[in-house]
Amino acid sequence: MDDRIIPLILKLAAIAGIFAGIKICLDSFIFKTLKKRRTKYYREDYLKSDAWKAKRQIVLDRDNHRCRICGARATQVHHTRYARKIGTEPIEWLISICDRCHRKEHKGKNYED
Ligand SMILES: [Zn+2]
Ligand SMILES: [Zn+2]
């Protein structure tokens, strides 16, 4: 192989590596930003919407206001799964839950839903 071609390949590989690195950083930044925006929308808009309140009430009524985990009086509704598109989760993915169990389910983190 020509001696000049090896440094060139190394240089190209280094450049490709830098671009790959930039892309990874950018992707994670975009991902985080979108996630943050989604969480904000979720907390500040969806959980305050009439649609959510209606759904929440349906779930509590279905479960007779009983916690589906321990049987205590439920005051909250918990998502067992989240829909990709906010607001489209079927009520089967929602359970009535008491404050104590809810805290446990979310390991003490924000647990509004
Ligand atoms: Zn409970
Ligand atoms: Zn929850």
Question: What characteristics describe this protein?
Answer:
single chain, 113 residues, mainly alpha, Wheat Germ Agglutinin (Isolectin 2), domain 1, 2 domains, two-stranded antiparallel ribbon, 3 helices, 2 strands, 53% helix, binds zinc ion
Question: Could you explain how this protein is built, in words?
Answer:
The model has no long low-confidence stretch (mean pLDDT 91). The chain has helices at 5-44, 50-62, 99-105; strands spanning 76-79, 94-97. It has 113 residues and is mostly helical. One zinc ion is lined by residues 67, 69-70, 72, 97-98, 100-101. Residues 78-79, 102, 105-106, 111, 113 line the site of one zinc ion.
Summarize the structure.
This protein has 113 residues and is mainly alpha-helical. It has helices spanning 5-44, 50-62, 99-105; strands at residues 76-79, 94-97.
